[in-house]
Every structure is written in C-alpha cells, then in structure tokens.
C-alpha cells in the first residue's frame, strides 16, 4: 500500500480490470479527478453508476486520459478505500516549469491501529460518549511507510520512506493526500518548492516552503537539491486543529543527498497550526477560463444530527437531509428504464438538463470543522472561499480563478464553486472526509439526463447488479451507510 501506480500519457485510453477476490465485501474503483467525458458508467460509484462488484466477479473500467498531471484511484464502496484499496495515477503531459527528474508520487495518508470499519462504528455512535464521534488516528504514512515510536527507542517499528537525490538536480514531486480525514503541511527542511499544478490544472508557478494539502487534493511540485550534501527530513505534519493524529509531527521521510548517510538532524520550519487550503489567488491556470453568471444556484447548509431517525447515530445533513442511495438499485437504473432516476433522498438530487448553462454551488456551515469538497465528472472554478457566513454581497472571482476538483470549505465558513453543464451522467458531489461521506455528506447531480442512456452498456450494468443482489440476498448483507 499504496497499490500500483496507473501510468499513462495524455490522450491514452486506459483500461483497468478489477477482480474481487474478497470473500465478504463488494468493491469498486473510482478514478479521482478523471472527468469521464461520456463515460459516466466508468466513474466507479456504487449506488449511482453501478452496483458493487460482488465477490468472485470482475469489472472493467475504460476511460480516456483527457487531463494530465497527478491523481489517485480508490474504492468507493463504504470506507474500504482507507483499508488500502487506493493508488496513484500519473498522466504524463506538458509542465509549466522545467525540471530534471520525475520522482513520481508522494502519497500522504493517515493510519489507524484499529481497522477503518472499527473506527467508523465509533465515529457514527452518538451513545459512546468520549469514545464516539470525531476520530483520532494513530499515525501517518508517506508512500506507505513510517515508524511508530520515538527514534532511537528499542521498540520502534517500521521504516521511513527515503528519496535519494543528487546535489544540483531538480525533482518533480507528485504529492497526493489520500487521508480519510487529515490536513497536512508538507515540506522538506531547508528547501523550497515551486508549485506547478493543482489537481489536474497546470498553473503559473509560484514558490513556497510549506504546502497545505487537504484530503483528495494533489499538487505537483519542483524541488531542487540546492543545499549542502546531507540528509534532510521530508515532513507531512498533521494539523490537529482539523483532525487528530497521535503521532502528528512524526510523519517523516528522508530526503537524502548522494554521498550522505545517517538519520537527519535538520530543523523543522515554524508555522501556525491551521486548517486551510493554499491561497487560491496563487493558482492562476495556464489555460484561462472565466465563469459566466449563474443560471442555477444550489445552496448547501451543512449540519449534523446525533439521533437521525431515532437511531442514536451521527449523520451529516445537507440542507436538512442526509444522503442515502442503494447499492443494489443505482440512480441510473431508472434512467435506463426510460423513466425517472432512482432516488432515495430526493432533496439531494439536483437536475442540470441544459447543455452550456452555469451551475453555482454554495456550501457553508456554522460548525467549526472544515470539509474537503470533491465533485465528480468535472473540474470547477473556485469563485470564493472564506471563514464567515456567505452572503450575496461577497465578491466572486469569475476571471480565470483557481480551477480544481477538490477544495476546502473552511470551518465556520463557506466555499462557492461553479462549472458549466457539458457532461451527461449522474455525478456525486461530497465531502472527502471518509466518515462524513459514509454518514451522508453528499448530493448527486443528474446532468443532461436525456443523453445518459446513450453512454451506458445496459448489459454490463444489469449483469453487475444481478450478481450483487444475488450475493446480498444470499448473505443477508445490510447497508449501514450512505451507499457511496
């Protein structure tokens, strides 16, 4: 873990076959940030675009690498991704600055000594007192590696990730936050980064010494080995103000120059612990795109309930409703049958029927907890972001603003995003904190409904659902989360 990197060139057709060899879990793969233009069936979202792949069955996803840069794939079945069903995606293409060596993915994640399913049971339990609700993870990993316990102690376990470098050489780092809940500050002691891409969007390069990166986000960085020959800590400091990790500032790798050896003794940068994105004003896309005025605006007010439907469990509410969809009856079923989309939470299904119109979404919350918001099927323009209550007097940046597919809604704050309707499908928009998605922080957009059926292979959908429903019925499998 992480799993093998999917590597392609810009414009390639990619085929990934998933074989479910587990005994008692469904599965799927979502290719995070891949737009799936005209290929909604390959988005990998159980309950929306497919049924889960049943044990013993397989499913082949096919998509075109229309964007280039860095991303990741992961299961979209329950919280399975964070048990390890994830890996990087690298699509080679142009870069907005030169470098010498592509060092590949740097995958950042949080890690628990309990299974993620055990953690989820506690996260949703509103009767467990101090043991329930918000989770504190144990550790963090860089490319699947780290140590547990103090350096030099006799019972320390594990090993650090190490990147070997040559003095005077510049390296492209493809940094991906795949955490279930954590916000990291990523940096290398004594070095600076040139940021050249946000998610799948090449930008005008800017320089920083610390990168703020939230769950689901990706940044491509260039770092030059321009310091004295030695060993330096590569750090992924968790921001406990956002979500806790016990070993929050000992998530480290080694940036080691040729000719050096030994454990680094370099000094960390000073900073204020905080829950924030990189400043979107720094993210000027190379390919300019402006937003037109809103044709439709959807407002999403985020809250939480501790006794949803009398069940004594936590559920997130989007404008008063918690999202629910069904593994065995995905949204597209109704569309392909020639009727209306299958819908189990009608207040959280939005219609976008007209090609070319602009959709604005305002997400805000009076709760002091940030949420990384991810949209499937599109990248979006970030029009505004702030730490207060949104109102119509707040100016929107519509002229070539930051463009990405995952953005942080600050705690006690808001974010305004926009995209143009051009991609037929049923697309999920959701919080990328794993517990929050499982507990209903999501909505779905039915885009260009009249064109969706032509993008689907009905036989594949029906065969997958028949196998899943037979398995679910035979083993009395109960869905205990949002379905996505």
Verbal overview:
With 484 residues, this protein is mostly beta strands. It contains five helices and 32 strands. It has helices at residues 116-123, 331-336, 434-438, 449-452, 458-474, and strands at residues 3-9, 13-19, 30-32, 58-64, 69-74, 86-92, 101-111, 136-137, 139-142, 146-148, 157-159, 162-165, 170-177, 184-188, 193-198, 201-208, 211-213, 218-224, 231-238, 244-245, 252-257, 296-305, 315-318, 349-352, 358-365, 371-375, 380-386, 403-404, 406-409, 414-420, 425-431, 442-447. Strand 10 (146-148) and strand 11 (157-159) form a beta hairpin. The chain is globular and about 65 Å long. Residues 1-95, 105-259, 344-449 form the Plastocyanin-like domain.
Features:
globular; 484 residues; 6-stranded mixed sheet; mainly beta; Immunoglobulin-like; 32 strands; 5 helices
């Amino acid at each position: 873990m992480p799993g093998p990197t999917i590597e392609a060139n810009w414009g390639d057709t990619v085929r990934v076959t998933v074989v479910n060899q587990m005994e008692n879990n469904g599965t799927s793969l979502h290719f995070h940030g891949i737009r799936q233009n005209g290929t909604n069936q390959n988005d990998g979202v159980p309950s929306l675009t497919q049924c889960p792949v049943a044990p013993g069955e397989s499913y082949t996803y096919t998509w075109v690498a229309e964007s280039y840069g860095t991303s990741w794939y992961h299961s979209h079945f329950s919280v399975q991704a964070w048990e390890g069903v994830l890996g990087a995606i690298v699509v080679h293409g142009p870069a907005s600055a030169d470098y010498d060596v592509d060092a590949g993915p740097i995958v950042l994640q949080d890690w628990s000594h309990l299974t993620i399913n055990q953690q989820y049971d506690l996260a949703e339990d509103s009767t467990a007192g101090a043991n329930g609700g918000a989770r504190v993870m144990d550790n963090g990993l860089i490319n699947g590696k780290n140590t547990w316990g103090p350096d030099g102690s006799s019972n320390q376990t594990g090993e650090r990730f190490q990147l070997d470098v040559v003095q005077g050489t510049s390296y492209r780092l493809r940094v991906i936050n795949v955490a279930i809940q954590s916000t990291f500050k990523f940096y290398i002691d004594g070095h600076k980064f040139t940021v050249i891409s946000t998610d799948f969007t090449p930008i005008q390069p800017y320089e920083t010494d610390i990168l703020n990166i939230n769950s689901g986000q990706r940044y491509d960085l260039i770092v030059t080995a321009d310091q004295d020959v030695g060993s330096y800590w590569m750090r992924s400091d968790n921001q406990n103000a956002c979500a806790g990790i016990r070993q929050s500032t000992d998530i480290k790798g080694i940036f080691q120059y040729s000719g050096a050896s030994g454990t680094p003794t370099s000094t960390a940068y000073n900073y204020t612990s905080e829950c924030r994105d990189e400043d979107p004003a720094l993210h000027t896309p190379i390919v300019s795109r402006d937003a037109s005025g809103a044709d439709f605006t959807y407002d999403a007010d985020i809250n939480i309930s501790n006794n949803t439907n009398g069940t004594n469990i936590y559920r997130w509410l989007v404008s008063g409703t918690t999202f629910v969809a069904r593994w065995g009856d995905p949204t597209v079923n109704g569309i392909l049958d020639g009727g209306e989309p299958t819908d189990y939470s009608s207040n959280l299904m939005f219609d976008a029927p007209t090609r070319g119109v602009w959709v604005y979404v305002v997400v805000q919350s009076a709760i002091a907890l940030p949420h990384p918001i991810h949209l499937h099927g599109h990248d979006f323009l970030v029009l505004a972001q702030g730490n207060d209550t949104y109102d119509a007097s707040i100016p929107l940046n519509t002229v070539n603003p930051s463009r990405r597919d995952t953005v942080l809604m600050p705690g006690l704050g808001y974010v305004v995003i926009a995209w143009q309707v051009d991609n037929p499908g049923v697309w999920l928009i959701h919080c990328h904190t794993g517990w929050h998605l499982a507990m209903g922080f999501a909505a779905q957009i039915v885009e260009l409904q009249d064109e969706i059926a032509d993008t689907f292979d009905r036989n594949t959908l029906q065969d997958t659902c028949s196998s899943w429903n037979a398995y679910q019925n035979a083993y009395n499998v109960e869905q205990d989360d949002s379905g996505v």
